[in-house]
Amino acid sequence: MSFSIEGKTAIITGAANGIGRAIGRHFLDQGARVMFADMDEGGLAAEIGEETDDDAPARYFAGDLREKLTINNLLSATIDAFDRVDILVNAARQILPSDPLDPDDESVTVMLEQNLTASLRLSQLVARRLIKQGEEQDSGSLGSIVNISSIAARRTHPELMGYSVAAAALDQMTRSMAVALAPHRIRVNAVAFGSVMSASLQSALNENREFREEIEQNTPLSRIAAPGEVAEAVQYLASDSASFVTGQIMTVDGGRTLIDPVSAPAH
Q1: pTM of the prediction?
Q2: Does residue 265 form part of some domain?
């Protein structure tokens, strides 16, 4: 079965490093045209190059995607570069610690704005463009939106309450938009990942060497995934091979959400 995205145009957010960058690179390798988007202009320029010619399959856009004007400019830049958009991957995310008992802790508000609201606004904007592009197309999918979520939506870590709440909200947004956009033949899905070697996880492992062992002991496949393994799951959901898949949260976690780390009592 082919999961081809060749010739498609994709916007990938959070693409200056980690999982977003891996998705963008993978899409390029699979023949897609990619707009790499992130706040980190230096990281984008280092990845894509300061200058690209008019025929280049990769471009980049730097800006704060929490701003409405910025996301409008991102879509305009994509259309100017590639004439259309077919796929949106919302991979921009932020992780902050939370204190559930501190009334002055703003982490939930910050996480919702960064990890949910920005993705929602961009998804709405891209969806309208997809509908416009498909006005003369009688059948077939008009496009695909894939959100990058986390198994934190289903696990309870009070110290990451803001991130967990935002991930759970993103999953529900995925389902709601899938139903709302189904009549327009636009599919919306998400990939919820577990322990993947993202930039944030690498930083955490550098600070706490024992953390790797703890992760591996609580993951049935006993390892940390490479970012490319998430990219391949995203490719499937973005491709026409998933033409009857919408509103789904695909879990890529090595089995971590299948087990309870507390052992059964001895008899």
Answers
A1: 0.94
A2: no
